Amino acid sequence: MEEKTMMPINNQIEPDFLEHIKSTFKRWRDLNTQGVTIGARELSNFAFTLKGASMNSHLGFKYNFNPRGTDTDGNPAITLKLYTKPEQMNPTADRPVYEFAAPYMV
Q1: pLDDT per residue over 21-65, tens digit each?
Q2: C or N terminus of the chain, fewer CB within 10 Å?
Q3: How far apart are the C-alpha atoms of 83 and 99, rounded to whole Å?
Q4: What letter does residue 43 receive in the DSSP assignment?
Q5: Which among 78, 81, 79 has a CA at the least distance from the CA of 106?
Q6: Dist. CA 4–CA 57, nearest whole Å
């Protein structure tokens, strides 16, 4: 039996993890349209998942997760920006590789 290494390549984000993020933000957007507020526990669990995935990726990506941020239109939103290189996180550059947003109830 061939042993496979599960170590992600540097500067890469696992495709299945991206799918998990996409489905999470889609679910949050759907809940918002139904008038449901995302709870602090769910946001905290998601933040821990991000932290663990970032640590596990061996410098694969950095992130900026803001549960009380604003979307591109200035509306209140849960935002996530993923970066694969530290220089992308520079506040003057701020060029995330992936960006997600879901509205939250005020």
Answers
A1: 999 999 999 999 999 888 889 999 999 998 888 877 665 678 889
A2: N
A3: 9
A4: H
A5: 78
A6: 16
- d(C-alpha 10, C-alpha 45), whole Å: 25
Residues 95 and 91: their CA atoms lie apart, in Å, by 9
β-sheet bridge partners, residue 78:
102
Q: In the block, which residue shows the tokens 């957007």?
A: 29
Strand partners, 99: 81
Spatial distance between the Cα atoms of 42 and 56, rounded to a whole number of angstroms? 21
- The HSE-up count of residue 53 (CA atoms within 13 Å, CB side) is 21
Reading the block at residue 33, the tokens are 């349209």
Give the pair of three-digit tokens for residue 42.
Answer: 């769910």
CA distance 100 to 71: 9
**Distance between CA atoms of 59 and 8, rounded to whole angstroms?**
9
Question: pTM of the predicted model, to two decimals?
Answer: 0.78
